[in-house]
Design a protein that fits this description.
There is one protein chain. The chain folds into three domains: 46 residues; 97 residues, no CATH class; 152 residues, NADH Oxidase, CATH 3.40.109. The longest helix has 32 residues. α4 runs parallel beside α6 and α9 packs across α11. By secondary structure, it is of the alpha+beta class. It contains 13 helices and four strands. It is globular, with a radius of gyration of 26 Å. The structure holds flavin mononucleotide. Flavin mononucleotide binds next to β3.
Length: 362
Amino acid sequence: MLKRLKRIAKNLLAITWIRRTYEAVNRLFLETFGSSRILSHLFFVFSFLTFNREQSAVLRGRRNYYRNKRRDRVSRVELRRNVHRLEKGIIMRPRRDVFARDYITETVEFYEFAAEQCKRAPDSMEPSEMQWAHNVLTEYFRVNTGTHPVVDAARARFQAIDFVPEGGERVPYVKRRLSDVSYEQIHDLAMQRRSVRWFEQRPVERELLDKAMLVARQAPTACNRLPYEFRIFDDPEKVRTVADLPFGAAGYAHNIPTIVVVVGKLESYFSPRDRHAIYVDASLAAMSFMFALETLGLSSSVINWPDFEPLEQKMQKTLGLDVSDRVVMLIAVGYADPDGMVPFSQKKELDTLRSYNVLRGE
Ligand SMILES: Cc1cc2nc3c(=O)[nH]c(=O)nc-3n(C[C@H](O)[C@H](O)[C@H](O)COP(=O)(O)O)c2cc1C
């Protein structure tokens, strides 16, 4: 018995020693290579696998962006972005007589491609997107009062397109509506929303999920691209398959009635400078989604999705994702079990979280 205890103590000491040595070496590396950008670069030359999936996803996304331009699609990101830019030009104060000279030709071309698709394969594209694009382009040519050969040529080309989607009024407008929601109400909602991990074993109505999605899609996104998808699973077997993938739901995955995989679409960008936007945009939508769920009597919890190769491979296979698709997070959704507990989760103090007018050295 004494011998066994001695052996256990020896093993524990060895484990502690290995852990401490690993931590010391790790720290030495971080102190050294984290001290300058050049050394950081050197570190990643040798440790290239760390961000390889992300790098490959960004490149694949950019490749797909250009490839997709000539493909039929439900929604056309390049058209969305440019129509959004036109809208910003239309609302500019003061508005210039001639604007968007550098991208109006390509915008009309994007619209032309979309119109060809709509004629060839009716209903294959979102009608609302086509109406918006058509209405904004019409408004653009109406308010461009100056003359410029590029704009004049684009106008003629636009007018020659023999496809006019029905429906109007999707153009910039004066926003006069003020909120009926009081500060107290939104604060109460924020206090009410907690990460809930224990749910009643009953299905979540799809109408409610769709209602929450209608709120989610109103969240702001860079250039109004909406570069994400909410992949919702409510079939119990599929929920289990998906909920078992992340580490973060261990211990409660089995009781999740509905799970959402929020996927960012890197094919929405031609430039690596925007690679972060999927995370920002999808997260803003996810927050709106969760607040909306609360108002519908539902609860939720975010589940972390780490950039960890074995998990990424499994998720990619399970959902049939493209290399350029990045999982941003998972969200468990359901009716809260009235007996289930939630952590208190103390928030940081206001003074820690925000500051006003602090510049360097102040
Ligand atoms: C990006 C992100 C990842 C999270 N990952 C997990 C997770 O893997 N498992 C889990 O149970 N909760 C997870 N959560 C929930 C947090 O633990 C929770 O939001 C936090 O403790 C604050 O609690 P509250 O949401 O109730 O205010 C995550 C939340 C976020 C925003």
